[in-house]
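Pasting as-is:
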Amino acid sequence: MGTRSALNKAAKETMTGLVGLSNNIALVDQDNTWIQAPVCNFSNAIEVDAATLTLAYATHCARPVIQLQACVFTLPAIGVVGQTLWVINGAADGTLMTIVIDGSDKFLWDVAGAAGTDSKDLYNTALTAKKGDYIKLAYGAAAGWIISEMGGTWVDE
């Protein structure tokens, strides 16, 4: 084994042994291995290892929130126009992620592309969920939220 291969092997073993945000993706090209975390290891991400979490602007706004187990995330009832929330599935494939909206709010356009309905939640179902699935939401107006980006398979309530 050449020096480069030995270094790559050692790096891969070191990185894959770490926990938290270093649930890495190993990219292999011939003798070279690159390690890529789902979120930059030096980011301001917040890991959540709880069954429920109410998202708050002061704590979670504009920061990746990474779930480590099945979790129900509740959006704030009152938002600041343009503020964003980003939730990522950092758990194993098949882990449910639920985004609950306040009863008087809605997603202005739902996952299917239709006009939203008050108090209808979003699901990254256990059947289709993959590690790395995510959703980015922005508070759009008093009526509710905008789904600005999503990865993976999401469904409306």
